């Protein structure tokens, strides 16, 4: 659904380890080389904004901004930032900060949700997971975002949530072989719990998967995910549950 006439979108993927940015045209095509820089530590809102300004200072002109943030985001306001530091981010209106800093309208959603908008086919129930510092998840029905769930923080063992079980730190601790076994188990759980039509696996560590995947599972790149920044401006403001999803099938 077209709601605006913005031609060029600054799309920013804020990750626990790197911040990536590019300019998209309104159809989601990447118009310049994708740039990345390390996420500043500690990641205060001020330092993150400075980092984004530095990263984008030689970028061509853009009309609006989309950002994916690694935590729970409500109407552009950050609620949690598990891999950055929730105490620095709770209730920070990142949408307003970006908009004020750059003098352009901005939208901010969960990072996996933004990636999800960039990679799905728009057919049926699709799940997008990202394997990086944390475990990002996005659920979409016919290409529309369903309410964001922080599956990353659902317990999978007696004392571990998904982030602790298959996140970057766990992968480095247990090694690729054991990590792959865990990923296999998690995919099995997603299959049983959600019965998705298609599962997309993105994030920097997706390339470490060393086993064969079912035909309804696809590995996707961060570059594809960042394209979600364009769809964010073509959709209504809020993620929505489509009527067809709740109606009897
Ligand atoms: C956060 C999610 C985020 C994911 C990937 C998790 O720790 O809770 O909101 O999408 O990391 O960055």
Strand and helix layout:
Blueprint: E1 8-14, E2 18-25, E3 35-38, H1 45-56, E4 64-69, E5 73-74, E6 77-78, H2 86-89, E7 92-93, H3 94-102, E8 106-110, H4 111-119, E9 125-131, E10 135-141, E11 144-145, H5 162-166, H6 168-194, E12 198-202, E13 217-219, H7 222-225, H8 228-231, H9 243-246
Parallel strand pairs: 1-4, 4-8, 9-12, 12-13
Antiparallel strand pairs: 1-2, 2-3, 5-6, 6-7, 9-10, 10-11
The protein binds beta-D-glucopyranose (BGC).
The level 1 CATH classification of the largest domain is Alpha Beta
Query: According to CATH, what is the topology of the largest domain?
Result: Nucleotidyltransferase, domain 5
| Helix segment tally | 9
Strand order of the largest sheet: 3-2-1-4-8
Overview in brief:
This protein has helices spanning 45-56, 86-89, 94-102, 111-119, 162-166, 168-194, 222-225, 228-231, 243-246; strands spanning 8-14, 18-25, 35-38, 64-69, 73-74, 77-78, 92-93, 106-110, 125-131, 135-141, 144-145, 198-202, 217-219.
Explain this structure:
There is one protein chain. The protein is α/β, with parallel strands linked by helices and 249 residues long. It has two domains: 111 residues, ATPase, nucleotide binding domain (Nucleotidyltransferase, domain 5, 2-Layer Sandwich), CATH 3.30.420.40; 113 residues, Nucleotidyltransferase, domain 5, CATH 3.30.420. The protein is 31% helix and 24% strand. It has nine helices and 13 strands. The strands form three sheets. It has a five-stranded mixed β-sheet with strand order 3-2-1-4-8. The protein has a five-stranded mixed β-sheet with strand order 11-10-9-12-13. The protein has a three-stranded antiparallel β-sheet with strand order 5-6-7. The chain is globular. The C terminus is likely disordered. The chain binds beta-D-glucopyranose (BGC). The site of beta-D-glucopyranose (BGC) has 18 residues, from α4 and β10.
